[in-house]
Amino acid sequence: MRWVSCIAFVAVLAPGSAAAELSFNKDVRPILSDRCFACHGPDKNNRKSKLRLDQEEGAKGDLGKGRFGLVPGHPEQSEAFKRITSDSKTLRMPPAYMGHDKLSDHDIQVLKTWIEQGAKYEKHWAFVPPVKAAAPDVKDAAWVKNPIDQFILARLERDGIHTSPEADRATLIRRVSFDITGLPATTAEVDAFIHDDSPQAYEKVVDRLLASPRYAERMAIRWLEAARYADTNGYQSDGPRDMWRWRDWVLDAFQKNMPYNQFVLEQIGGDLLPNATLSQKIATAFQRNHRTSAEGGIVDEEFRVDYVADRTETTSTVFLGLTLGCARCHDHKFDPMTQRDYYSMFAFYNNVPEKGFVWNFGNEEPTIKAPLPEQETKLAQLDEAMKTAGQHVKGLEPASAAAQEKWEKEIAGHKKTVAWAPLDGLILSSELAADEQHFDGKRTVDAGKAQPTISYRDPFTLAARVKPETLKGAILSKGEDYFEGQQHALYLIDGKVRLHVTYRWTDLAMRMETVKPVKQGEWQHIVATYDGSMKAAGVRIYVNGELQELKILFDQFVWPMDSKEPWRIGAGGGLRFQGDIKDVRVYGRALSADEVAALNLTEPLNTLAAKSNRSAAETAKLHLAFLDKYAPKNVAQARARLAIATSQRNTFYDSIPTVMVMKERTERRPTFVLKRGAYDAPGDPVTPNIPSFLPPMKPDWPKNRLGLAMWLADRGNPLTARAAVNRYWASLFGVGLVKTVEDFGSQGEWPIHQELLDWLAVEFMDSGWDVKHIMKTMVMSAAYRQASTAGPEMLQRDPENRLLARGPRYRLPAEMIRDQALAVSGLLANKMGGPSVKPYQPDGLWQELQGGTGYKADTGDSLYRRSLYTYWRRTIAPPNMINFDSPTHEVCIVRENRTNTPLQALNLMNDTLFLEAARKLGERMLTEGGQDRLAYGFHTVLGRDPKARERSALEKALEKFETYYKAHPKDAQEYLRQGESPIPKKIAAPELASYAALGGIILNLDETVTKE
Amino acid sequence: MALPDLEARLRLTRRHFFGAAATGIGIPALASLLPAAAPVKGQPGLPGFPNFPAKAKRVIYLFQSGGPSQMELFDNKPRLAQFQGTDLPESVRNGQRLTQMSATQSSFPVVPSKFAFAQHGESGAWLSELLPETAKIADKLTFVKSVHTDAINHDPAVTFFQTGSQIAGRPSMGSWVAYGLGCETSDLPAFVVMISSSNGGGQPLYDRLWGSGFLPTRYQGIKFRSVGDPVLYLTDPAGFPKDNRRVFLDAVNEINESHYEDVKDPEIATRISQYEMAFRMQSSVPDLTDFSKEPASVLEMYGPDVKKPGTYAYNCLLSRRLAERGVRFVQLYHRDWDHHGNLPKDIPKRCKETDQASAALVKDLAQRGMLDDTLVVWGGEFGRTVYCQGRLTKDDYGRDHHPRCFTMWFAGGGMKPGISYGATDDYGYNITENPVHVHDIQATLMHCLGVEHTKLTYKFQGRNFRLTDVHGNLVKEILA
After folding, report:
1. Count of CB pairs separated by less than 8 Å, A with B
2. What is the pLDDT of residues A938-973, one digit of tens each?
3. What is the least distance, in Å, from the CA of B480 to any CA of chain A?
4. For A413-433, b where at least 16 C-beta lie within 10 A, e where not — what string?
5. pLDDT tens digits, residue range B152-207?
6. Does A792 sit within 8 Å of B153, measured CB to CB?
7. Cα dihedral angle (A504, A506, A508, A510), rounded to 10 degrees?
8. Are residues A884 and A897 in contact, defined by beta-carbon separation less than 8 angstroms?
9. Is A900 in contact with B270 (Cβ distance < 8 A)?
10. ipTM score here?
């Protein structure tokens, strides 16, 4: 891992040469950290003796009996040195009895020299704020394009290594186009660049690319990986969620070049900013992207704690470049991070009103409605239309009141009963004649299956008149005839009216009952309404029209239910009814309090109309009945229009996407150090704070998530800018200046060019955290522009190209491989943003996971969108992304991984998308290729003409394909049947098939999937 | 400590390349590109591995996902008859953590197995009537009745068994083995996974369970699928016969070679070899799944399901064929053992699907002399409670998850046959003798493969990780 530094040591420590001054941080600390700190480091619980080597005082202090760990200038007197060089198996460190090997001669020599030089300690580099060092002088000043090059070149000159010439223009524009937009340069773009003689030719290309919306898409995808963004929850059955509005926010932020400190601030604490905008609230979805579990039987708190831990660790990995996970269970063994520090950070995120056991069919609270701008406009219009319709109805009220008065007088004299009850939404009604009303504790009445059925999110009303003889029984139910079974049911339990909505008794259910019992031996009207909100708060129970106080017994959301059982009167949950029941009704909506009051009244309208002193309920019943049945035409029409306007508005409102966001509880949830990281083993209480070894928060910052956001986004933070520029560097050069992008701590890699890293970090902050500026600075450097070809010597000496004596050469990331195929074949759909899409995927993958209906691919343009829009199911992520090392988006990943496997070969050869792209590329060769079709296809993908040997290989293959397909035209037709895009009829199938195969060859070349 | 990463990279690249080049087709020019080297059959592991002579050369892990009930299969508890329907005494439950599914249950009535037990073989192993075929090979098996785990829910519990950690992201057991030991075939992956096709029941099984975690992805398990291509994207499209694929690959390789000459990046050489490996897999995998040359007696032994792709029996036979061809780690999953309710009706179905084929696999390996160096493992992610979950009726009951004790069995590969190890109390609720933790099983399994479990490590994010985390003790008593 630290091989480059070791190359340097060889020079430093070569026998016979005077030793140069060693640096504790660079040369010594890595050895101590790797070999000694586990027992002689920051973790107090694991420290094996008084000796502590991570701190100067501990290392040089008196260990008793006249022994000192380190005696500056005197390795032979230093206990630590004596022990690492001891020949005795029992004395030697690190101890053989624990299975550790002796330190290497090289490491011992480094430590010896360091002690001789005075054993000077330094604070860990990453915890000291970066300063901009003057760029070093170099001999070959003409090579330098900007200060980056001075840092790179100075090192190369010191090591006697030569830089590479600038890459040829075709290679360079392909490289920079991928790096800035994630897509290859078009043939026209390549040609334009090759023929542009102006000195600014390259800069013009860079500026054009940075201004492209494709830039935002390229930058977004790495951020989505870091943010563990996905379209599903990630645990167990892995239900869906909708977070794409946050993805759109990220695209927007990159496109507008939002300063990085603002980007950080809004994602961590946007909702807590004064007068937070909708956009700033959406930004905080960053910390809701973690996985969540809807697995039955989980301990809610255990998972909630996991979510908070995920946020804590993601924050440190992404923004600080530190890996804090270890400190969840114990003090960090290598870095000065205590468990207390961990839980102090944790406390910032431990105040969200959230649950561990989540909803499995969409977004889990807290959420907000996140309308797109055009949706906001449309919603305002619909609100306005509803308001206008409402005003119209209101305007007609005096006339309507007069008409009602007239109508009341009219019916007051009627002898004949004028009955009325709410009919709107009534899906089941069972009057039960006088001789059918009695229930003896055994009898039940099958009331049939009401249509439409009531599932989990549907509002309903259950109503009945009852005269109980006992205080326990079932009034009305649908579902399993078992008390803890799946059901909708209305009971009397100890005289109290009880409602059960149960999917699974133990965790997916709602149960509540009235505080007051009903009376025995009297007719009473019982109504329960539910508004479909999936919360117990959405339930009302009325007795004789009066709203009852409720005791909530269980309050969890319910899953989709579709019971085949009929509605049963006098039965349910294994209980029966003793007494009388009549007038049973089920509505597919929640009746209002007025409607319930009206339903409760048995007197007909004519009787009520004749009364002079009417109760509120009586007034309500007359009014509702009048409006329902007897209103003048203009009133009825106005009310119908209002109903339509309301329904349109509500339907539209429901269609507006939501997004899960951060929110603070009103009362802060206390946080404790969790012993061994266990959710149920709280130790000392802690308050929100940042780790003690890093610069503190300013006193006037709030000690909450906003304060954390301000601290992360502050210039005084030594890590934020470094971590960011290091990631950008890695995205261009393939490896970060600190290779361990996720760990700048003492177990991470020492930066290969610390002064360059710091220069970039300060430059980044000085520029106003301007991401485009820093990206441009990097790609404008001569170091970046070099040809990527390595001679055998450099390949041996610097296989990972850390010294940058050549340009970067790496296999493209997964999404660029697919996006390139879409682009060069002409299939790419350029639409930006919006919900995720489902492109082709081999059949059966989702079913293999857990049965069910499986994956259904979209059609049309959705098949050809850029890969960052592909629907991401975490437990079974798209195979053509995973095969090419895309992270699974289950946890935060910031380091790119690259492998080279046979599955990649199979993927490129036989995935529908690549076969279709090859076909379209073949078609382009034939229709656009003119005289030299081969060269045209080659050029379209690689930006250059084929060399003689390449051309002959292609020609040879083409000839064989043509021979075969001319002899087997049916096979040609079969082979062309790949993907949805149309097959041109004008071209003969054998010819097109041959060129499609040729297109496939070009798409499978090493150079094609590589950034050269 | 200075250069291992680099050295490993170079060595692997070189050996991968040579290994493949030696058996490859159609890349004659490669020989001139790189210095000559002795051909290496298979895929290399790490230097120094195995650490000592291995008893087992390979593993076939029959994972029974969902948590099969030890109460109905292995752990005979005759005294339960007299406790039937009474509440599990608090002294036995002892405040034990329950899943939220039964934590709100008002009572915990004890329910004995509906299925009868008997002793089998010379070893006198207790097995229930649900496993008649397993009973016949009892003397070849090593039963461990005192396995316990830390996890109580499926997802973390399966993850724990497969990766040594409840939190996703660590390499799976098979990946560790592939990383450390490589394998003996150049035509197939080192680590293969198969899942019995599902009728929609059972807990989901995720790719990450056989993922390589932070190890390079070439060590991930390759899932052989029961529908469509056995390996994703394996089959060439219709109208593109094998000769065309050869023409295609020759052109790709020729151009890549030409480019290699210019660029000299060893990644290009690796890519050429991986394309050849892909091509070989296009032949070796179909050959693998062609059972037509299997003797009728063998097919009969596995039962009629063996002819249906995707069944457990089919996958068992395929496992043997993979083992024969040098694959290092074969992982089977059979789902739907999660019997919270309807246990008496459902568990016989799972047994019927698996009993005969599991036993046939062991017998088949033994007949071929392969059982000595093949370790077969049978087990789920946890056991089930002695008390009833949900409604207890005359014919029906369920059992909740139980992490405190359950049974696994092993065969071959250095295990001591014909023994039962560990014991539980009269309720089958707590271990009374020789507890074996998940990490202990992992350590022991590694030992059988000749790997000292503390030595197979990988440095990631500043720490050396291993399968057994910082735990794991070898269970010497069950070794032959």
Report:
1. 272
2. 999 999 999 999 999 999 999 999 999 999 999 999
3. 26
4. eeeeebebbbeeebbbebebe
5. 888 889 999 999 998 777 899 999 999 999 999 888 989 999 988 765 566 777 77
6. no
7. 100
8. no
9. yes
10. 0.87
| Amino acid letter, residue A626 | F
Structure tokens at A649: 């508005």
- 0.80 surpassed by pTM: yes
Residue by residue, DSSP assigns A151-198 as HHHHHHHHTT-PPPPBPPHHHHHHHHHHHHHSSPPPHHHHHHHHT--S
A54 vs B contacts (CB less than 8 Å): none
**Residue B160 CA: distances (Å) to CA of A291, A880, B164, B376:** 18, 27, 5, 19
| CA A900 centroid distance within chain | 27
Cβ distance B204 to A238 less than 8 Å, yes or no, reads yes
- What is the pLDDT, as a whole number, of residue B462? 61
Amino acid identity, residue A1006?
Answer: D
- Tokens in use for A715? 């210039």
Task: For helices B4-23 and B266-288, give the axis angle rounded to 10 degrees.
Answer: 50
Residue of A nearest to B216 (CA): A899
State the Cα–Cα distance between residues A693 and A676, nearest whole angstrom: 22
Question: How far apart, in whole angstroms, are the C-alpha atoms of residue B188 and residue A586?
Answer: 62
Say yes or no: B352 contacts chain A, CB-CB below 8 A. no
Shortest distance between the Cα of B86 and any Cα of chain A, in A, equals: 20
Who's near A758: CB < 8 A, 6+ residues apart? A130, A131, A132, A133, A722
Query: How far lies B353's CA from each of B64, B89, B130, B304, in Å?
Result: 11, 35, 11, 10
Amino acid symbol at A118: G
User: Which of A484, A900, A954 lies closest to B267 in CB terms?
Assistant: A900
For A670-674, B150-154, B405-409, which range has the lowest pLDDT when averaged over its residues? B150-154
Q: Would you state the structure tokens that stand for residue B79, as one six-digit string? A: 């005294």
Q: What is the DSSP letter of A621?
A: H
| Interatomic CA distance for residues A190 and B105, integer angstroms | 71
For B166, the 3-state DSSP assignment is coil
Say yes or no to pLDDT of B27 above 50: no
Asked if residue A151 lies in contact with residue A180, where contact means CB atoms within 8 angstroms, the answer is no
Nearest to A849 among B9, B105, B206 (CB): B206
Distance CA A613, CA A616 (A): 10
Ramachandran region of residue B233, left (φ > 0), alpha (ψ -120 to 50) or beta?
left
Structure tokens belonging to residue B290: 């062609």
Of A877, A882, A906, which has the smallest distance from its Cβ to B234's Cβ?
Answer: A906
CB within 8 Å of B146: residues ≥ 6 apart:
B405, B421, B422, B423, B424, B431, B433, B434, B435, B436
- Between chains, do B244 and A964 touch, taking CB under 8 Å as contact? yes
Distance CA A63, CA A70 (A): 10
How much is the mean pLDDT over chain A? 92
Subunit contact B231:A954, Cβ cutoff 8 A: no
**Residue closest to B188 by CA, chosen among B269, B282, B310:** B282
CA gap A39, A51 in Å, rounded: 9
Q: Is residue B200 within 8 angstroms of chain A, CB to CB?
A: yes
Closest CA to B406 of B372, B430, B376, B375: B430
Between positions 206 and 225 of B, the ones with CB within 8 A of A are 206-208, 211, 216-218, 222, 225
Match 């050849």 to its residue by tokens.
Answer: B276
Of B59, B56, B43, B64, nearest to B329 by C-alpha is B59
Q: Which of residues 139-158 of B touch A (CB under 8 A)?
A: 152-155
**Contact of A476 with A572, CB cutoff 8 Å:** yes
Which has the closest alpha carbon to A879: A817, A830, A922, A921? Answer: A817
Q: Does B90 touch chain A (CB under 8 A)?
A: no
Among B residues 92-121, those touching chain A with beta carbons less than 8 Å apart: 97, 99-105
The Cα A353–Cα A188 span in angstroms is: 54
DSSP B310: T
